[in-house]
Amino acid sequence: MTGEPTASTAPPSDGAGFVEWVRPHLSSMARLAARLAVGADRDDIVQESLTRAWLKRHQYDASRGTASAWLLAITADQARKAAKRLRPVAELDEHDTPEARPDVEARVDVDHAVGTLSTRQRLAVDCYYFADLSIADTAAVMGCSEGTVKSTLSDARARLRSLLEVSE
Fold first, then answer.
1. Residues 73-108: tens digit of each pLDDT
2. Could you please report the per-residue DSSP string of 113-130?
């Protein structure tokens, strides 16, 4: 037994039961929120996601995916909304431009590279690699087929390879 509720288990309608139903998924929800909405408060995103899940618990359909996938899809949606609300705190003035440092610039910056992917590719990478979802659960979060997830991940890996190549 993996700790994942059985596929036929619907969210309980009582508060305490619902808390126990979502508890195994909280860390995945927090990781996904942090990955998708950098700079936003991940705990706020998870809280908004849980509120949304509670209000929509009657819409959960186990035949369409696991509880984890359903909760992470809600979290991804709330994270996108939070990321849109973020505003730059301040613009850099010309004199605030960082000094060029070849030693630092030579380092590989995976987060920056992932940030240059398309929204769809970034979501696939974040779900599959950072939230440790299966292909099936990633497809449920993204609202697409498993084949589309595999193709999207392949395209994302090719793009990341080209971005992260270090010439010697």
1. 999 999 988 888 875 555 555 555 555 545 445 445
2. HHHTS-HHHHHHHIIIII
Cβ count within 10 A of residue 155: 15
**DSSP of 33-70:** HHHHSTTS-HHHHHHHHHHHHHHTGGG--GGG--HHHH
Return the sign of the alpha-carbon dihedral for residues 141, 145, 150, 152: negative
Smallest CA-to-CA distance from 80 within 21, 22, 122 is with 122
**Over the chain, what is the mean pLDDT?**
81
Handedness of CA 69, 73, 74, 79 (dihedral sign): positive
Q: Which CATH class is domain 15-87+107-163?
A: mainly alpha
Q: What are phi and psi of 125, to 5 degrees?
A: -65, -45
Encoded tokens for 59: 């819409």
